[in-house]
Design brief:
- The complex is a heterodimer of chains A (619) and B (611).
- Chain A is α/β, with parallel strands linked by helices.
- Chain A has two domains: 320 residues, ABC transporter transmembrane region fold (Up-down Bundle), CATH 1.20.1560; 239 residues, Rossmann fold, CATH 3.40.50.300.
- Chain A has 22 helices and ten strands.
- Chain A has a six-stranded mixed beta sheet with strand order 6-7-8-3-9-10, sandwiched between helices. In chain A, strands 2-1-4-5 form a four-stranded antiparallel beta sheet, with helices on one face.
- With 611 residues, chain B is of the alpha/beta class.
- Chain B is built from 23 helices and twelve strands.
- In chain B, the strands form three sheets. Chain B has a six-stranded mixed beta sheet with strand order 6-9-10-3-11-12.
- Classes of the chains: A alpha/beta (619), B alpha/beta (611).
- Chains A and B meet through helix 1, helix 3, helix 4, helix 5 and helix 6 of A and helix 5, helix 6, helix 7, helix 8 and helix 10 of B.
């Protein structure tokens, strides 16, 4: 046990300091084939409907293409017959045309309905997956992957995919259809010219491939720059008070202009790639046509080909190249979506480090005794060790038993490892060695709902979700009745201020509680924890923004609330210690003092010194 | 089209009310015309693009004609001499066509990307300058979706839809002229569907705009949920509530899906009509035409030409469907963007750069404040605050949780405007000072320390961009931010969302350093030490005392230790200053203060008797 008089802060490593900076986008490895596998798994369930949609569009195209054919029949058969006063053939043709004219739009209607349903279901599925996955990922991930990037995965990357789904499918199908149809026609008309004509598909495919390769790079950059714009944007809007108070507007304009410019450049680069692709493909196609005309003309002149066949070949050849534009649109959407899918797949492939158990265990049943989780639960750290990924050890292996029902205060300077102990107990992190047991069960063997019935943590950060105050408290236990919510607020001394809000418990906290002070937000956080009614309650600096009466009210409440619960309280302010049965003093990741408050205060250790300093700071 | 403040709030809260109220006023074309100031810069390019598209289309039409001539002429006549010029022509046309296709896209690529960037920069700049009260009302997801997908939709409209709207209309007119020249009766039959089409598209437009607006708003709401779920991840994890958040997300994304399906439904209806009606007209024209030909009132060749023209017009007519959809989405997107751009910035008539000559300190006289959306019957949050902080003095502001202390501090740098009363700095009304100047004079450390994605140095020097390295050092020393030197790159280390994450206490110390750097004339500290441990707090207090000695300061305090930094203390209660005095005086004379400082009943805690 050491006692030191030097400024604690100067000596000790600061714990968060060791967190690596956020992973760069490229750092998150995307397993090869993951984007495609993701797309397959998204579309897979809709295989049946996709088949139906394709059939419908096939029929619709057939109806559409039969128009010119029927016109020809009308001209060749209908009119001559009509001259002979036989309206029959013309009427028959008209009837057929009418059928097609009616069928085409109906099929089109059906196609739009079916395909939009597929698209929306796929998007719903993917949005849900991203959201759920981001929620499932452990805190260490969230500390590295900025919120703005997750937002951009769920918004702008999804937009890119929507683009592809809403138009791409139809475009691709039409391209394939018309290419097949015309290829067959060309070969049937004259196999020699047909083959030569079809050979043009080879250079066109090469051009398309080079476009693909070039544009995927552009679109990757584009997704990254979109994300960094979103990061900048949200950071600025969420910090608008300091932005304005410190006249940051101009500097922000400049910083935003940089990312904005990068984004504009990448956007333009992408558009230029398409332009280049379309231009190059057209040139190739038109050169080919000229060649075929020349070749065909030679053949006809040498009587190796009929004139009519050449006409037909040349006209159809033009139509073979018609879908170049459509293909460009499709490829464009596809590339953009592929880049987005890569990013999304990267996020989805990231496995949470804190995982759900394969075979969850249950905690032993507590003796039922009304509302309070009777007796609390025993917490046991066994050779528990924690180190950051960089290898830096924060907590060397330690043992600690907190008997059921005990209230333990953990004190120590910033960086002493208090919060890490709390996070291990709340299973925000898993220990890198040893284990943490709750009533004998390793935390890693508990499913989330079971774990959260057992352990709940109130953090110093007092974020409020949009919605009413009551809803924010009810996060503790969504099934709670209004009475229970109000009782929790009353128990912690938050009732008065909430009741005084414009709509009481139904007051909308607006944007992250703009109207509710930091202290009030902490009270809401407390009420939330009370409502959750856990067997073990962890309070991490949960009273830092409360004023003295507020803190005292909380402490009074705590005496009742903590009875029959195990509690771990981490606090800078030693006032909290008064309600503890036991105090742990931590220094550089080790527990250096352990005893009842009175023992430690009366002793000569570090806590006695701290306590004297604190007493001096009071009135 | 200019929306007023209250309507804005209504928009954010209840779109449906606004929809029904606004339907009469909004028009797709008018909304799109608002884009003109931006589109002006690219009007030349747009014209070039449209011309290239039109010429390209003509070239495309010309190629088959030439091909026909080749087959009918030189090839049929076995005249290889005459073949070459025509083949050359085909080649030339082919190259021209490719060139035009390329030009149509190329001329717009950069300018439109730049236009989008310009609009985005304007939006961002505007948002930064809108009053804090505006940001209180708007979820940042809603703002984000405006800067993202809405601007994207607008760019797409300008790049494709607008160009084709022009080109296809021209094509259609040309085609119609050809038809009339052939036979006016057939032409009339062909054009007949135009009337019902116009009526139907009008109806479609209104409904589709509604749906597209709703989808865009729901997209914004969805972004807000995502953002909150990430920012509040610790709470969700602590309570194991990610599932209920996911339920909320699912509910909202289902709603979005419903709206999108509604859009698709409207589109399906429109498209089937837009493709169906002209087909029926062609069918009729074919019947009538055949009759006319059979009765020798029309030549067969003319009928063929007429029908091929009609078929060639298929694309321009059918494209009407998606062009309209694009136009509608772009117009509602433009509405959403201009809602923000039209919001008036707080006027800033201040012209005086100098303070009064008298060192009078900070004086608040009859200051009242209520939040703009506070219910009618609620009392003002600040109901006549009178307070004088003498020059060079440090005043602590004490009051119960929620008594309006933070709000009061926000009035000094004019983050909010008092609803009544005046605030003067050295005798100068703060409204006479330009905001930028005022905010140079008044430095603030907020309750919630926010760091930006920048280096520690940049974050601290935000308060005084011209400060020297020595001043930076001394500010960091005052805030006891010695940990900075142990960061990987010292003061050059990137922090904030894209950098190293720091603990609450560390952030608070940097925010404090930011406030005190460059010796501001007036200093506002909102509970600046709440996240510090006792030891560090004591060190900061010692250092802070020196800084406070040379500045006029208002310090919001929750605890006795912070109060002791101040020369005098003001007690805020029921929207007024209840008492002002030294700590000892107030302890003696003001029961409310005693209660705030030491807890309700207990006067001065002599030993922890409670346990």
């Amino acid at each position: 046990m050491t006692t030191t008089t030097e400024p604690v802060d100067e000596l000790e490593p600061v714990e968060e300091e060791l967190l690596p900076p956020p992973a760069d986008e490229e750092d998150i490895p995307v397993p090869p084939g993951a984007p495609r596998a993701l797309l397959r798994s998204l579309l897979g369930p809709h295989r049946g409907r996709i088949a139906v949609a394709m059939t419908v569009i096939l029929l619709q195209q057939a109806a559409l293409q039969s128009g010119p054919l029927l016109v020809a029949v009308a001209m060749d058969r209908g009119i001559p017959a009509l001259r002979e006063h036989d309206a029959g053939p013309l009427i028959a043709v008209m009837a057929a045309y009418l059928c097609c004219a009616l069928l085409g739009p109906v099929l089109e209607w059906a196609f739009v309905k079916i395909s939009s349903r597929i698209n929306q279901d796929v998007l719903l599925d993917l949005r849900g997956r991203i959201f759920r996955h981001a929620q499932r990922l452990s805190l260490d991930f969230h500390e590295r992957y900025t919120s703005g990037r997750i937002i951009s995965r769920a918004t702008s990357d999804i937009d890119a995919l929507r683009e592809l789904l809403s138009e791409g499918l139809q475009e691709l199908l039409l391209v394939v259809l018309s290419t097949c149809y015309i290829s067959v026609l060309l070969l049937v008309l004259d196999w020699r010219l047909g083959l030569v004509s079809l050979a043009s598909l080879l250079p066109l495919a090469l051009i398309a491939r080079s476009f693909r390769n070039r544009s995927i790079r552009v679109y990757r950059r584009s997704r990254t720059s979109a994300a960094s714009m979103i990061v900048r944007f949200t950071e600025t809007m969420n910090g608008i008070r300091p932005v304005q108070a410190f006249r940051r507007e101009k500097a922000n304009d400049a910083a935003y202009a940089v990312v904005n410019r990068t984004a504009a450049t990448t956007t333009a680069d992408g558009l230029l790639e398409i332009a280049r692709y379309v231009g190059l493909s057209r040139v190739t196609a038109n050169l080919w046509i000229t060649g075929v005309v020349l070749l065909g003309a030679q053949l006809v002149m040498h009587d190796a080909l009929e004139l009519g066949v050449l006409t037909a070949v040349v006209l159809y050849l033009r139509r073979l190249h018609d879908p170049i534009d459509q293909l460009a649109m499709f490829l464009n959407g596809y590339q953009s979506a592929a880049a987005a899918l890569e990013k999304i797949a990267g996020l989805l492939a990231h496995e949470p480090t804190v995982t759900e158990p394969a075979e969850p265990r249950e905690l032993p049943a507590l003796p039922a005794s009304g509302r309070v989780a009777a007796g609390g639960r025993e917490v046991r750290f066994e050779r528990t060790r924690f180190a950051y990924r960089t290898g830096k050890e924060v907590l060397p292996p330690f043992d600690l038993v907190i008997p059921a029902g005990q209230t333990v205060a953990v004190v120590g300077a910033t960086g002493a490892g208090k919060s890490t102990v709390a996070k291990l107990l709340a299973r925000f992190y898993d220990p890198t060695g040893g284990r943490v047991r709750l009533d004998g069960v390793d935390l890693r063997e508990l499913a989330t709902p079971e774990l959260r019935r057992g352990v709940v943590m109130v953090t110093q950060e007092s974020f409020l979700f949009s919605g009413t105050v009551a809803e924010n408290i009810a996060i503790g236990r969504p099934a709670a009745t209004r009475e229970e919510v109000e009782r929790a607020a009353r128990d912690i001394g938050a009732y008065e201020f909430i009741a005084a809000l414009p709509d009481g418990f139904d007051t909308d906290v607006r944007k992250r509680g703009g109207r509710i002070s930091a202290g009030q937000r902490q009270l809401v956080a407390f009420a939330r924890a009370l409502l959750a009614d856990p067997a073990v309650l962890i309070l991490d600096e949960a009273t830092s923004s409360l004023d003295v009466p507020g803190e005292q009210a909380v402490q009074r409440a705590m005496r009742t609330v903590l009875a029959g619960r195990t509690a771990v309280i981490i606090a800078h302010r030693l006032s909290t210690v008064e309600i503890a049965d036991r105090v742990l003093v931590m220094d550089q990741g080790r527990i250096v003092e352990d005893g009842s408050p009175q023992e430690l205060i009366d002793g000569t250790g570090r806590f006695a010194t701290l306590h004297r300093a604190w007493r001096d700071s009071l009135v | 089209m200019t929306r007023t403040g209250p309507t804005l709030t209504a928009m954010a809260e209840n779109r449906h009310d606004d929809k029904t109220a606004g339907r009469g006023r909004r028009s797709t074309v008018r909304s799109l015309l608002r884009l003109w100031p931006y589109a002006r810069a690219v009007r030349g390019r747009l014209a070039v693009s449209a011309t290239a598209a039109t010429l390209g289309m003509l070239t495309t039409l010309a190629v088959p004609v030439v091909l026909g001539r080749i087959v009918d002429g030189p090839v049929a006549d076995h005249d290889s001499g005459a073949l070459w010029p025509l083949v050359g022509l085909v080649l030339a046309l082919g190259l021209i066509e490719a060139g035009l296709f390329y030009t149509r896209r190329v001329v717009l690529s950069r300018p439109l990307a730049d236009l989008e960037a310009r609009m985005r920069a304007d939006l961002f700049g505007k948002l930064q300058r809108l009053p804090v009260a505006f940001h209180d009302r708007w979820g940042s997801g809603q703002l984000l979706s405006r800067a993202g997908s809405d601007l994207y939709v607008i760019r797409l409209f300008l790049a494709f839809a607008l160009v084709f709207l022009v080109v296809n209309s021209l094509t259609f007119l040309a085609g119609a002229a050809v038809m009339f020249s052939l036979d006016w009766r057939l032409a009339l039959i062909f054009l007949a569907p135009a009337v019902p089409l116009l009526l139907i598209t009008r109806r479609f437009e209104g409904r589709y705009s509604d749906a597209s607006r709703r989808a865009q708003d729901q997209n914004g709401d969805l972004a807000t949920v995502v953002e909150e779920s990430v920012l509040g991840i610790r709470i969700l994890k602590a309570f194991g509530r990610h599932r209920s958040m996911a339920d909320r997300f699912r509910e909202q994304s289902r709603e979005l899906r419903r709206t999108e399906l509604r859009k698709a439904h409207l589109l399906a209806n429109l498209w089937s009509v837009v493709t169906g009606l002209p087909e029926l007209a062609v069918c009729c024209a074919l019947a009538v035409g055949s009759y006319l030909v059979a009765h020798d009132q029309l030549s067969a060749g003319d009928l063929v030409t007429f029908l091929s023209t009609a078929l060639a017009l298929r694309f321009p007519v059918e494209s009407l469907g998606w062009l309209l959809a694009y136009a509608n989405e772009a117009s509602t997107a433009a509405d959403r963007v201009f809602e923000v751009l039209d919001t008036p910035e707080a006027d800033d008539p201040g012209t005086r750069a100098d303070l009064g000559t008298e060192p009078d300190g900070i004086r608040l006289t009859g200051v009242r404040f209520r939040y703009p959306d506070a219910p009618e019957d609620s009392p003002d949050l600040l109901a006549g605050v009178d307070l004088h902080i003498r020059s060079g003095e440090t005043m602590a502001l004490v009051g119960a949780t929620g008594s309006g202390k933070t709000t009061l501090t926000a009035l000094l740098p004019r983050l909010y405007e008092p609803t009544a009363g005046t605030i003067t700095l050295d005798g100068r009304d703060i409204r006479e000072l330009p905001r930028q100047r005022l905010r140079e004079l008044v430095a603030v450390a907020f309750e919630e320390p926010t760091l930006f994605s920048a280096t520690v140095r940049e974050n601290v020097l935000m308060g005084a961009p011209d400060a020297s390295e020595a001043q930076l050092r001394s500010a960091l020393a005052t805030a006891q931010a010695g940990f900075v030197d142990r960061l990987p790159e010292g003061a050059g280390t990137e922090v904030g969302e894209q950098g190293l994450s720091l603990s609450g206490g560390q952030r608070q110390r940097l925010a404090l350093a930011r406030a005190v750097v460059g010796d501001p004339a007036f200093l506002v500290l909102d509970d600046p030490l709440s996240a510090l441990d006792v030891h560090t707090e004591a060190l900061v207090e010692r250092a802070l005392r020196e800084v406070l000695g040379s500045t006029t300061a208002l310090v919001v305090a929750h605890r006795p230790s912070t109060v002791l930094l101040a020369d005098r203390v003001a007690v805020l209660a029921d929207g007024r200053i209840e008492a002002v005095g030294t700590h000892q005086e107030l302890l003696r004379d003001c029961p409310h203060y005693r209660e705030l400082m030491s807890g309700e009943a207990a006067p001065v805690p002599e030993g922890s008797s409670a346990r």
